[in-house]
Amino acid sequence: METTEFIWFDGKLVPWADAKVHVLTHALHYGDAVFEGIRAYDCGAAGSSVFRLKEHSQRLINSAKILGMNMPYTAEQIFDATIETLRANKLKAGYIRPLTFVGYGEMGVNPGHNPVQTIIACWPWGAYLGPEALEKGIRIRTSSFTRIHPNTLMSKAKAAGNYVNSILAKIEAVADGYDEAVMLDPAGVVSEATGENIFIVTNGTIKTPQLTNTLGGITRSSLIVLARDLGYTVEEAPLSRDEIYIADEAFFCGTAAEITPIREMDHRVIGAGCAGPVTKHLQQEFFKVARGENPKYKEWLAPYTVD
Ligand code: PPE
């Protein structure tokens, strides 16, 4: 990976190589960490902007609350620390990873009084699913792994432990020659991908699963607003696997993946087998918003400049 100079670690900027923890860190053994994935965009002469930093900062706090972690920072402090980290690294555009984790202290499942620590790292990160994915679309499979039951792990928490389910699905998909997996929930309806929410387009109507057991994606909620403002009808309703097979268009969305068209699923070509017109339209409008070219959504952006 491409590194940067500093990582924010519990209030201090430390050199990248020195941001270390003990091997008996509780979260490393039991997965009790929560994180965020955030993107900053280069807005040209206007400087840079972090996309929906307020919402991402709040989701980190919410995730910690769901896991019963004693989070020592407020959403405002995470917001400010993120901007501080970007500026210290002179990073105009890239990916930001805040992580709050249960640290070193006692071993055993009970996190007890172990310290709760927070880091914020950032680095340049291009297209998540490969350089051609955003334009040409990807091939996906339905995972043989079921997405977590809403009372097994807490899907509204962006918790490290939840990602073991995603890792199983991702390894399987990649080993079988696909770019990504989509997972069904315990009832057999479509939930989400290993790191993205899913949308389909049928007869001009946009549809996405409700949030029963999926992460409340910030890209997802932004796209729902954006699409409705553009005049599209957007439904949040149960989505079956075969509805995707016969959709005109399908796409994934997430901070890392942005808006990635799906061109094939389980060996069925979706629509015309390339990025469809509605997907392309939303992609274009989304990037305009993120790059500060649409003043209507200015409140979604946290502007900053680097010296
Ligand atoms: N579902 C899952 C399971 C998920 O991990 C993400 C983000 C989303 C939906 C979309 O959420 P949002 O980013 O708020 O729109 N996945 C992050 C982690 C990716 C990684 O490999 O790490 C991300 O996109 O940053």
TrEMBL record:
GO MF annotation: an example: branched-chain-amino-acid transaminase activity
InterPro entries (UniProt xref): Aminotrans_IV, Aminotrans_IV_CS, Aminotransferase-like, B_amino_transI, BCAT-like_C, BCAT-like_N, BCAT_family, Class-IV_PLP-Dep_Aminotrnsfr
CC cofactor: pyridoxal 5'-phosphate
Enzyme Commission identifier(s): 2.6.1.42
GO BP terms: amino acid biosynthetic process; branched-chain amino acid biosynthetic process
PANTHER family: AMINO-ACID AMINOTRANSFERASE (PTHR42743), AMINODEOXYCHORISMATE LYASE (PTHR42743:SF11)
Name of protein: Branched-chain-amino-acid aminotransferase
Gene that produces this protein: ilvE
